[in-house]
Fold this sequence. Notes:
This protein is mostly helical and 277 residues long.
Amino acid sequence: MEGSNLIGYLPKKTVIHQLSGFTKLLCFLLISVVGMISYDTRFLLGLAVFSIILFRTAQISYHEISFVVKFIAFFSILNLLTVYLFAPEYGVTIYGTRHVIFEGIGRYTITQEQLFYEFNLLIKYFVTIPPGLIFILTTNPSELASSIHRVGGSYKIAYAFSLALRYIPDIQEDFRTISKAQQARGTELSKKASLMKRVRGNLTIAIPLIFSSLERIETISSAMELRRFGKKKSRTWLLAKPLKRNDYIALLVVIILCSAGICLLVVNGGRFYNPFR
């Protein structure tokens, strides 16, 4: 993990970074909702390409979020396998036909319908994950909190979310410091050590890290109580950006895309595009 961030704000001068946090949050929510509702493969592929283009526009490089990408990829693949294990014929139920590719053991056959359904699930990850990462990585934590509050969220929850993102880099730096101290004492935690040895070594790091994090939480809580945080129903925000021309353009583009997705629900007669009919 040396040299790479777990997750957090990456200040850069791009068009997406300059957008209001409110715009980015609203666009993320709209894309996520329509992406989760629709199972029209053609529309999802278009949204996936759009999300990847936005990701490239934000100039977020792989090495900056490599750990997060690997983590998400692992659980995405695990989810696809779990769907098949628990419902290997769900695609057949949805599309109403059954084209067998490979006869397995018992109910575990591989059909075109099931593969097509899981392919749609895979595309959905490319639709929803990039906008979420863009929102978190291109939005200052304080502005992020104000954005959550502007769309109707509690400012207490928004502030807690902001603090969590603000202190993730600090916790990661503490982890690296403790790791280096452990290695100076002779504990091998590099790739040269076995997997189990590294797991045990990292678990020993977790204990002091938890205690240092709890101490930090107590300090922050005391400071907020002294400033009477949460006593009023609303609050002002230092980094709340007003909407500008680019914000309105971004919102218009996303609304048009979402409207197209809603229209396809009517054209298809439901959420699913069925190429087997």
